[in-house]
């Protein structure tokens, strides 16, 4: 339960990272779960956060290709790919996963060349690479995420990138047990 509170607070702090002095509001929902937000709600109280920590995320343009197109950017291997496509999850999809499991599938046209592999990038963070194009992500936080698959050569250079796929993951939230008075 503490991890839920922590993730909610962390999400609120990340959302507030742009302005240095943003307001944070604390409230308790009908199920007794403490929630933090940058938006005031009925019954919420404004709280002070000393030295809020923030992170600076890389710009999407620095992580993803600028046009998301399927053009060949290197000529060293002589291999030409027409495109890389993420086939699962569908772009702009939303789905439930209680344990945060997300399956990602991709394919290239033509088939992947020897010495090349597919690298998964989620929210700007590169994950592992393989030659199958199927990836299993676990414990993905709920919310909206962006995926991209890159074909990389043996030196890790990106040859071609897929279009960015956006999906929203819904995860249930366990109700908080309220203490009983004796």
UniProtKB/TrEMBL annotation:
Signal peptide range equals 1-22
Sorted alphabetically, the keyword list is: Signal
> Which domain of life does the UniProt lineage start with?
Bacteria
Q: Which Pfam families match?
A: DUF4124
| Annotated ranges, domain DUF4124 | 12-61
Cross-referenced InterPro entries, in alphabetical order? DUF4124, Ig-like_fold
Q: What is the protein named?
A: DUF4124 domain-containing protein
